[in-house]
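Input record, target 12 of the design panel.
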């Protein structure tokens, strides 16, 4: 093959895009037909003019659809990789650059100014006659909800890893989110052009940290060069383990030109080891591969590439293993093979199990969507289009075909609307379409009531409901979990005339991002916006003022504290409250008797009676619980039991919305309702809610001052440092930040214990040697693992921590954190927190 490369060069370089047609067939035929090389080059030049990379795929064939997401830690190269995918598919004519702020996917001004992805962006393109619907997700922990709602509608995911940093903490988080939903994944080890990048080390980290069985299907290829008198390794291409060929990209080009070469020397030797390991891994997991292996007389090299790919696809779809690829997106190396892997190994919608629809009525059993016999879709994102002023609802259609002007019924809030306009999104632009077929992602414009997580059903041609219509309208797809916010900021209009625009702007923000929450302080009338982090609230503030043009004042970002009752406090007498009101139609009344007790931060320290109460209780927001007397049943001759339950829960939640000492929401208490009195002539449960609200208020008034606790959010923090910095960082966490260190691990340490039957020993997986670790000028983390310090630290002490950590570790330390739970603050900390809160 190598001796025919000059012919390709004479024909202006080889193939301008890496596709199965050019690669798989060419590598087998060129050696036998010397004239074929130039013909292929000329033939592809003709195809290129027709738009080979962007040939329209068949939207009616669901097996040619891939709904994928790019997930990773911040700065791993997600957006850079996506921009190359768009370029090689023919969607864009030039490659966008994150540093220059001209990428297609990061289109918000805040994203381009900060150089990070803030909101997930969807785009569609074609590759090898397949339609790829891709979502580029944020990597910053403050925007976790964007990742959660994107993963919810995906069929597969590409996990991008930084070849220098390996498996980082946020990567673990998004990996386990995808794993919990059964999403098949492939891994792309990026930045192999960087000094100190370690592909083999990263593969071992995937096995150890993520506990994933790996299958290396290509690995980086380097050339040794002399720079400033020193030998360094330069990434130049990849070694295809399945086809046993080398693919080399020309330096300083846009990546469309590359050479397919025969393997020789060390490259051939290592590729042989990799192929043996790949075949043996597949033989352990796939019965068909065992048969092929036996037919080949135990010759790993004799098994056809097509058979390996089929087995690899079956194992990936079954989540038995994870294919691992390598490249350097910024240098335009390895992206086309990654696109091929998306098509070859990630599932189509037809390969995924049918979603389950659950009814709000516990008496109605769950139904697989395939048996429901109706068109259905899940709304996973809502945005306000600044160009048209319309609300755009992103939906994933799970069954049927949604057609323009179809009637849609929202089973979540039981409203009916019409899909006035359908579109396909291309980042911040859209193209109108007549329908969204099954398995595709699209956008509905013109709806007023659809929110994130809502289930939509509609009539579809050739389908009819197989269950009664009234039951169908109560059924919903799995909702999207919304994490609890831990920061807040006050918001108020600058003038009275700004109140209405502020209300409209906040409504738009909350509809777009349900992880934001809005509350109003009854005593001060102050409106407070809560979010996942400081950056999250800063971006929301900027969007409110700059994009939605709201004239408002946003206060200092603060931590969302709560208050509670000391678990040691024992209420002597339950409080009874009778609510009555005179209306035109007559008087209404209700009475309730309640008692309250605090719940310990750690339930291991709860007594048996409390554990028994919690076991049969109903959980409410803010980790609060509600119980009725054992054996007690709600009933009323004129009021439905559902309405009684709703009034009961709403009344308790309303009563706990403001504590008596700090005016904060009450957290971690058990409310026991021992008696309810409702006149038989009532036809509404509203008086019950009011009675409970005032009864709880009376109980909270009776709690002694010393038994009222302030609760603060505590974060699960992982600090990554070098050996020499362990002592100073741990001392700072324990003493200056009131934290509790609970683990110190090597960065390469596996998470599960070896007693776990699913334990994967990273030392037993195949991983190629890391050439760059020996040829790098910088041999810092590259030879020694860093340490992970794991601790529980109050959020208040983590504000501004990154700057302090970098100063303490000479810029080498980093950390990630996630909300763990609320805990009671000590008396000294309470005084300090409260003084700081209102300084």
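The sequence produced for target 12 reads:
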């Amino acid at each position: 093959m190598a001796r025919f490369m000059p012919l390709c060069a004479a024909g202006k370089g080889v193939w301008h895009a890496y596709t199965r047609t050019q690669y798989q067939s060419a590598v087998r035929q060129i050696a036998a037909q010397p004239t074929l090389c130039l013909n292929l080059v000329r033939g592809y030049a003709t195809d290129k003019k027709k738009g080979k990379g962007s040939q329209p795929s068949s939207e009616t064939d669901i097996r040619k659809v891939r709904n994928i997401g790019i997930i990773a830690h911040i700065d791993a190269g997600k957006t850079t990789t996506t921009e190359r995918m768009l370029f090689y598919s023919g969607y864009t004519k030039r490659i966008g650059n994150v540093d220059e702020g001209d990428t297609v996917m990061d289109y918000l001004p805040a994203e381009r100014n900060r150089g990070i992805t803030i909101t997930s962006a969807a785009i569609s393109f074609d590759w090898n006659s397949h339609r790829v619907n891709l979502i580029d997700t944020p990597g910053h922990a403050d925007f976790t909800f964007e990742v959660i709602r994107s993963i919810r509608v995906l069929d597969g995911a590409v996990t991008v890893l930084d070849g220098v940093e390996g498996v980082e903490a946020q990567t673990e988080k998004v990996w386990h989110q995808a794993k919990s939903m059964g999403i098949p994944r492939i891994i792309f080890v990026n930045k192999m052009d960087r000094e100190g990048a370690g592909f083999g080390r990263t593969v071992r980290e995937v096995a150890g940290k993520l506990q994933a069985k790996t299958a290396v299907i290509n690995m980086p290829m380097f050339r040794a060069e002399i720079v400033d008198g020193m030998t360094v390794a330069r990434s130049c291409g990849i070694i295809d383990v399945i086809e046993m060929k080398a693919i080399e990209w020309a330096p300083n080009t846009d990546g469309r030109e590359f050479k397919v070469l025969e393997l020789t020397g060390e490259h051939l030797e290592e590729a042989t080891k990799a192929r043996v390991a790949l075949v043996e891994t597949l033989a352990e997991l796939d019965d068909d591969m065992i048969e092929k292996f036996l037919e080949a007389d135990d010759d790993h090299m004799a098994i056809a590439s097509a058979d390996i790919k089929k087995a690899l696809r079956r194992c990936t779809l079954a989540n038995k293993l994870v294919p691992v690829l390598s490249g350097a997106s910024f240098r335009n190396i390895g992206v086309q093979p990654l696109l091929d892997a998306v098509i070859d190994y990630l599932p189509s919608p037809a390969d995924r199990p049918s979603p389950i629809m659950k009814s709000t009525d516990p008496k109605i059993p769950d139904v697989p969507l395939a048996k429901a016999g109706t068109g259905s879709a899940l709304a996973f994102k809502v945005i306000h289009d600044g160009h048209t002023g319309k609300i755009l609802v992103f939906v994933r259609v799970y069954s049927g075909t949604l057609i323009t002007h179809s009637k849609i019924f929202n089973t979540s809030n039981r409203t009916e609307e019409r899909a006035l306009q359908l579109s396909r999104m291309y980042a911040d632009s859209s193209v109108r379409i007549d329908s969204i077929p099954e398995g595709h992602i699209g956008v509905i414009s013109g709806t007023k009531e659809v929110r994130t997580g809502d289930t939509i059903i509609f009539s579809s041609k050739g389908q009819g409901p197989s269950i009664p219509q009234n039951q169908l309208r109560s059924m919903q797809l799995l909702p999207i979990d919304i994490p609890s916010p831990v920061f807040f900021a006050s918001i108020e209009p600058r003038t009275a005339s700004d109140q209405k625009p502020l209300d409209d702007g906040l409504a738009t923000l909350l509809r777009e991002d349900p992880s934001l929450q809005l509350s109003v302080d009854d005593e001060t009338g102050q409106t407070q916006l809560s979010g996942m982090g400081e950056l999250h609230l800063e971006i929301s503030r900027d969007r409110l003022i700059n994009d939605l043009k709201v004239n408002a004042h946003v206060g200092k970002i603060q931590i969302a504290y709560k208050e509670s009752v000391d678990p040691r406090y024992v209420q002597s007498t339950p409080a009874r409250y009778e609510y009555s009101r005179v209306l035109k139609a007559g008087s209404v009344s209700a009475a309730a008797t309640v008692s309250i007790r605090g719940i310990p931060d750690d339930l291991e320290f709860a007594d048996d009676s409390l554990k028994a109460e919690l076991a049969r209780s109903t959980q409410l927001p803010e980790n609060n619980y509600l119980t009725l007397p054992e054996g007690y049943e709600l009933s009323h001759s004129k009021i439905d039991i559902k309405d009684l339950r709703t009034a009961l829960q709403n009344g308790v939640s309303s009563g706990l919305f403001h504590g008596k000492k700090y005016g904060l929401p009450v957290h971690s208490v058990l409310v026991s309702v021992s008696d309810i009195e409702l006149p038989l002539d009532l036809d509404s449960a509203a008086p019950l809610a009011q009675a409970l609200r005032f009864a709880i208020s009376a109980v909270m008034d009776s709690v002694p001052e010393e038994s009222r606790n302030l609760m603060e959010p505590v974060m699960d923090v992982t600090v990554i440092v070098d050996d020499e910095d362990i002592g100073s960082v741990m001392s700072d966490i324990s003493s200056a930040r009131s934290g509790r260190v609970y683990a110190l691990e090597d960065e390469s340490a596996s998470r599960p214990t070896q007693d776990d039957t699913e334990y994967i020993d990273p030392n037993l997986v195949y991983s190629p040697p890391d050439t760059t670790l020996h040829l790098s000028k910088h041999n810092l983390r590259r030879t020694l693992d860093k340490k992970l310090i794991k601790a529980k630290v109050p959020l208040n002490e983590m504000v501004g921590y990154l700057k302090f950590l970098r100063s303490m570790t000479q810029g080498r330390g980093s950390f990630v954190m996630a909300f763990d739970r609320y805990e009671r603050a000590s008396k000294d900390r309470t005084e300090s927190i409260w003084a700081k809160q209102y300084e």
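Confidence is low (pLDDT under 50) at residues 1-58, 750-757, 773-784.
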